[in-house]
Known about the structure:
Blueprint: H1 3-24, H2 41-63, H3 76-96, H4 99-114, H5 121-145
Helix pairs in contact: 1-2, 3-4, 4-5
Amino acid sequence: MSFKKASLFAFSLTFVLGLLFFAFSFKLPTSTPGMVVGPGYYPRVLSLFLIVSSVIGLYVQARKPDDGKRVEIKKPLYLFLVLGFSVLVAGVWHATRSFYPIAIVATLTLLWVLNPEPTSRKKALKTVGITIVLIGVICLLFTVVLQLNL
């Protein structure tokens, strides 16, 4: 597939997903008594960002001439691994209702598997450090700012 066609497809898919998330975000409250910023704001802002950025990307890609570059996925197994793992994590989270232990294990596993460095202490420390930062930011954003219990 040409790079231009792949880009147009990806931007179109992002636009549709942004619209879907925006529509579903109206089910979440935007504010409640004692809470100025409710849980509905985050998905709404994120979906608007997806919509705007995909429209800009579609416009830019549509104006560019097709230069004949081809898109090649060098390790398609990694794509299916991440997609499958994401579905598994979502299913386990839905069944157990305990987000953070699952997110920590999933993030550690994916960072370890997808990191091409040879196994070493440096790789382990880097994986643990990035996991702590990512889960910390998620916890801060959802638990402290949006006051959601994941």
